[in-house]
Amino acid sequence: MTAQSLHSCNDFVIKFANVNGSGSASANELFARAVMRMGVPIAPRNIFPSNIQGMPTWYEMRVSGAGWLGRRGGCDLMVAMNPQTWDRDIAEIAPGGYLLYDSTKTLPRSRFRGDVVVLGLPLTELCNRAYTDPRQRQLFKNIMYVGALTALLDMEFAVVETLLAEQYRGKDKLLDANVNALKIGYDAARDDLPCPLGLRVERANGVGDKIFINGNNACGLGAVYGGATVAAWYPITPSTPVVEAFTGYCRKYRTDPDNGKARYAIVQAEDELASIGMVIGAAWNGARAFTATSGPGISLMQEFFGLAYFAEVPVVVFDVQRGGPSTGMPTRTQQSDLLSCAYASHGDTKHVMLFPEDPHECFTLGAQAFDLAERLQTPVFVLLDLDIGMNDSLCQPFAWDDQRRYDRGKVMSAADLAAGKNFGRYLDVDGDGIPWRTIPGTHPTKGAFFSRGTTRNAYAKYSEAGTDYVYNMERLRRKFETAKKLLPAPVIKRAAQPTRHGAIYYGSTSPAMAEACAQLAAQGIHVDLLRVRAFPFADAVSDFIADHDVVFVVEQNESGQLRMLLLTEAEADPKKLLRVLHYDGTPITARFIAGRITAALEARQAPPLPKVAP
Amino acid sequence: MTYFAKPKLLRPDTPKNALGYTRRDYEGAISSLCAGCGHDSISAAVVQACFDLDIQPHRVAKLSGIGCSSKTPDYFLGNSHGFNTTHGRMPSVLTGAALANRDLIYLGVSGDGDSASIGIGQFAHAMRRGVNMTYIVENNGVYGLTKGQFSATADRGSKNKRGVVNSDSPIDLVALALQLGATYVARGFSGDKAQLIPLIKGALRHRGPAFIDVISPSVNFNNHAVSTKSYDYVREHNDAVNRLDFILPRDPVEAAYAPGELRRVVQHDGSVLLLRKLKTDYDPSDRVGAMNHLQERHALGEIVTGLLFVDSTAESMHAHLNTVEKPLNQLGDAYLCPGNAALDALNASLR
Predict the structure, then answer these.
(1) How far is CA B117 from CA A454, B150, B152, in A?
(2) Portion of chain B with pLDDT greater than 70, in percent
(3) pLDDT tier for residue A311 given thresholds of 50, 70 and 90
């Protein structure tokens, strides 16, 4: 152990460099869960290629006793299992950090660094000795390095063993083989390597009752709890798992116990246009329906979004954002669909958006989206991103109030119609801009209407009269004002001391923002925080901007899309809103945010340059 | 079809169906199409078919895309909910509607531009997906609302009104529907209501995707002397394979035809399709035979009409999806929400 090597307990970053499709994902997740079971918060992130087998993939895991769940950046311990990326993986290790590698094949000294602790284990050789089947040799190599890490990081072997026992319950043969591999790795490290390292995991109490799940699964679950019965979709990274999760949870919770029949319908459509078309048809016909997609799908669905907006059909769209434009970075994260969703489709449109910050909110806002869509009779977009969607994350456990009933909005029943209630599909009877609707098949002679994307009068009759058009557009504007009051309010966190500096952010920026705020406070820079949770913006957002001299708008896209929305929709002063933009496809870090805010404030405080005489 | 506003008063002897409705109860708004448009005849045939079948108008959902044909659902079944969707996308919206409520009757109306050009993908997938629907294409070979451009069903070599020759191959939607798995495939002619009405009735009572291509001349843009979609041309080249009589389960089957000339197909709901053979060699239960016949006659310049194929035992989309009998849009909270106890168990598995 060199004197300069890193020493840290429950606070480091470990990165696994693997080959895509080699079975490493489940081993890495096993390791993550073991740390979590020891009560230490973790924040793992998968960095994967748009590919099935053979390309490099990384699993980067932050261990943070303090509970910071944003990406930290850097790497203290590299598990280098991919020869293709060896050089860049070695270069990434922090000085004094550690390298665990497969030493079966001797590598020249020039391939290593002098300032990192090199830990070689002949994993391939150990595997070849223990197993004959080539696939097993590959898979168990992964379990072996988990065993080695258990020893190196001073973790409890029994915790990992228990996790395996849970995973392979009832499959004794598989369990034994896995435990055996774990033990081989553990023993080899303990016997031949300097255990424990300067980096250690120590049992703590930082996890509590939190759960570990990704946002895509949570969205799928939210759709089940939100009462969705129809899902139509087209496969696209990174949103495919939303519907896969919905399918799984539906099978579990929505299969009729008497006859095994499905209380749901899921259709894989021929493209994104058909997906949203089916969702619109189902919602028009009174079922709660959704699709899940990503940027390219949002582009394809534009025309239909306009129809749903104008015909006032309550659809829900989960947009798991990835890097754009065009095919962009399909397996990297961004918050760059904000504007294309906010004003989706031609003509004057405006759409409701919800911004969950983590899997917990993916569930709550995902379920609430269906109530909001039906109450407002308009599309509701739930915008998460790849970082939230595809990475397991610690979050508050799910809860549901069993007294809660779905808000189906203003739907006229057969009894209402029979009683002679005046029905005009686009008539603003309540003054809130939301008209009443009827579901097809309700009454033999009353309440039928013709839905269309063309202009119509308040009674849904085709009309090209300007007055009818204006009445309708003004009502839609009123409806949007009503929406502001129904949407989840922004979350404001005041700094410990009064300050003229604020920051506005949303979604996956949340954990990094919270950590940056703490880092800045430690430097004496205090920032009030406002997390936007919905669009249209609540009045509290404009008030927050008005209350501060400088407001940093922190987001993950190149053009500052949230800032643009704030300028037009909250009528903010452009000079006040300073951009903090991160858009290289990796999740934003606290270091980045704090660095940018510090630099910006320093630049503002620097005395102006003396004017040079002409 | 209602081209002129009709008086509200009815003659005492106005015929009523078993529900007590008159044909007027199945009509809609006044048509805005050109006088003499074939589409208005199709609307009238839909009205007659629904009247004859004693369908409750509000149990029908009528959907369409964009174009002259897609305007027509406004002109029939005024007590039915309708949805004029986007260009070429009626099939997906109808599919979604059918997912939400399996109990309604779904009538999709489209045109040759709507289904054979911009919407050919959605047309194809609705057929192969087994959506329980009647899909009518009002086929005139031209774009009417934009004043007479060729559509994808226009025959190669046919000339438009200004003498421009169409050099692209035509798409035959009937041939596609057969290949893609539609389980009721027919072609009619808006100028032959006696043939068309029973075809629509059979389709409305069919379980699964029922496709009817109706050649429907555009009086303004495609009814000139050299058109292959004109009234005269279609009458001269109409090659009907059979004549259909549709019999409701409750009605007696009066067969006054010589044995061998009559084919009887019982649909899943007990309704009977009585097919008088016009071509002794034509078998409407033979999909491959139907496809061959179509190609052979097409090569001779003939327009094959009639009930070309029917599979009365086919399953539809809801059977494939194994959905509950009760329409999904009528399931209450208790059937949909697993509740907090399930979440407690789920949370425990995520630690």
Answers:
(1) 21, 11, 6
(2) 95
(3) very high
Q: Do A401 and B57 touch (CB under 8 A)?
A: no
E strand or H helix that includes residue B245: strand B242-247
For A212-395, CATH number? 3.40.50.970
CB within 8 Å: A274 and B125: yes
Chain A: closest CA distance from residue B207 (Å): 18
Instruction: Please indicate if any CB of chain A lies within 8 Å of the CB of B346.
Output: yes
pLDDT at B2: 45
In a 3-state reduction of DSSP, which class is residue B303? strand
Cα three-residue angle A393-A395-A400, rounded to 5 degrees = 130
Q: The tokens 């050789």 sit on which residue?
A: A125
ipTM comes to 0.96
CB contact B2 to A (< 8 Å): no
Query: A383 by DSSP, 3-state: which?
Result: strand
Reported as a single tens digit per residue, the pLDDT across A399-430 is 999 999 999 999 999 999 999 999 999 999 99
Contacts of B347 in chain A (CB under 8 A): 209, 211, 397-398
Q: Is pLDDT above 60 for B209?
A: yes
Any A CB within 8 A of B98 CB:
yes
Size of interface A-B (CB pairs under 8 A): 223
- Decide which of 1.20.810.10, 3.40.640.10, 3.40.50.720, 3.40.50.970 is the CATH code for B23-334: 3.40.50.970
Poorest-pLDDT segment among A75-79, A229-233, A369-373, A606-610: A606-610
Show the tokens assigned to A348.
């004057």
**CATH class for the domain made up of A8-200:** alpha beta
Instruction: Give percent above pLDDT 70 in chain A.
Output: 98
B interface mutation test: which of A278, A313, A437 has the most B CBs within 10 A?
A278
Residues of chain A with C-beta less than 8 angstroms from the C-beta of B331: 229, 263
Residue A555 CB neighbours (<10 A):
28
Percent share of chain B, pLDDT over 90: 83
Take residue A81 and report the two structure tokens written for it. 């299992």
CB contact under 8 A, A282 and B56: no
Instruction: Please indicate whether, in this complex, the C-beta atoms of A277 and B95 are within 8 angstroms of each other.
Output: yes
Q: Look up the CATH architecture of domain A491-605.
A: 3-Layer(aba) Sandwich (3.40)
Question: Using CB atoms within 10 A of its CB, is residue B274 exposed (0-12), middle (13-18) or buried (19+)?
Answer: buried
Q: Domain residue spans in chain B?
A: 23-334
Average pLDDT score over residue span A450-476: 96
Q: What is the pLDDT of residue A52?
A: 77
Q: How far apart are CA A38 and CA A276, in angstroms?
A: 44
A567-597 pLDDT, tens per residue?
999 999 999 999 999 999 999 999 999 999 9
The Cα B259–Cα B277 span in angstroms is 11
pLDDT over 80 (residue A382): yes
Which pLDDT belongs to residue B1? 43
A253 at interface of B, judged by CB pairs closer than 8 A: yes
Which positions in chain B touch A230 (Cβ < 8 Å)?
A: 96, 99-100, 328
Q: Is the pLDDT of residue B3 over 70?
A: no
Could you give the angle at the alpha carbon of B139 between the alpha carbons of B135 and B143, nearest 5°?
120
> Using CB atoms, which residue from B85, B329, B340 is nearest to A439?
B329
Q: Determine the residue of chain B that is closest to A443 in CA distance.
A: B58
**Cis preceding linkage at A614, omega within 30:** no
Average pLDDT over residues A447-471: 96
Query: Is the omega angle on the peptide bond into residue A511 within 30 degrees of 0, that is, cis?
Result: no
Domains A8-200 and A491-605 share a fold: no
Taking residues B205-212, report their average pLDDT: 97
Chain A residues lying within 8 Å of B99, measured CB to CB = 230, 232, 265, 267, 278, 281-282, 287, 289
Quick one: CA dihedral A247, B329, A453, B76, positive or negative?
positive
